[in-house]
Design goal:
The chain is of the alpha/beta class and about 250 residues long. The protein has nine helices and seven strands. A seven-stranded parallel β-sheet has the order 3-2-1-4-5-6-7, sandwiched between helices. The longest helix is centred in the middle third of the chain and has 29 residues. The radius of gyration is 17 Å and the shape is globular.
Amino acid sequence: MKLKDKVAFVTGSAQGIGAAIATAFAREGASVVISDINLELAQKTAQEISALGVKTLALKTNVVDFADVDKSIKEAVAQLGKVSILVNNAGITKDALLMRMKKEDWDAVLAVNLTGVFNCTKAITPLMMKAREGRIINVASIVGEMGNMGQANYAASKGGVIAFTKSVAREVASRGVTCNAIAPGFIRTAMTDKIPEAVKEQMLNQIPMKKLGEPEDIADAAIFLASDAAKYITGQVINVNGGMLMNT
């Protein structure tokens, strides 16, 4: 029960990696807010997680809209008493080669993936600083560190998340709040399941461990960063990629 008495607000957590993180947190004793643009799916996920014996709350939140984010944070505090962990996981992709990328697809990805992180962090940081405790965990991507063809918008957004993480970490450290990022590699999700086998084989050839990661691998890293085991770690990027990218 590493997260007993903690309250976690996880964006984009109705499914996929976000749901895996929320579920893992619940197993460690945390109450969880399932924050997602899809309220119906968020409610279903919250109901499933509540079977673990923790309090859950499903909230429809558009991370692009600061007022909506602020409203959700206040609702979470009103119902669960506080928010001690924020996981900025919500994200989208709209892939295309730069020459063919539409301006609106660039704007949409930056709005959700980067401005969304700003909005949620800005809304919750005053509460954490006042309480003199808090964990902010931003889900970045290996693409934000190494780039990827056809993902200039996604790579830019995730690279921005990494830089944002380090800047925020410096600002809030003296108040007992940490801010770190997780950079997943290729993770098995509904999205990767649809990739043609030939393309998937090329992906696997880039990974020394020769397998895709699982959402639970990201959740395990999130548990570590949210727990007391990581209380002296801030401004860091935890790479979870099977060895695909090894920083010096």
